[in-house]
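Class prep. Write one:
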Amino acid sequence: MELFDPYKITLLVAGLTGLMMLIQILIADVAAIKEQHIPGYPIKPDHTSFLFRAARAHANTNESIAVFVLFTLFGVFSASDALYLNAFSAIYLVSRLAHMCFYYGNFKLARSISFPLSLIGLIGMFITGFMTWF
């Protein structure tokens, strides 16, 4: 699979992003069980509640994951510059991990800073793939 060799880091990031999402699901589920939350009922929107923050951290990642997957496919199959695609995908993952941790810890300013950094990773991935078309 020579086509994928230059993109090993991006593909590793994709796998690690999947693992991060699984961990987020498990953390939210354990928090729900611990708080005896009844499944199917909405979670009270309260940033002092760890369950709420855990559910929102997962939801926030879920909102951007499809874009990450599409930009990964776009970049790899456009034979984009692997150095940049790998770097921007790593920026996405690191900033999403930071966002998750800051959300869990209720560090609002740090969480708000990490979110646009993940967008920079996504935008960089798109631009890297797009540049191969010119």
About this structure: The chain has four helices and no strands. Residues 29 and 90 are 27 Å apart (CA to CA). The chain has a mean pLDDT of 96. The helical segments are 8-34, 50-77, 82-105, 108-130.
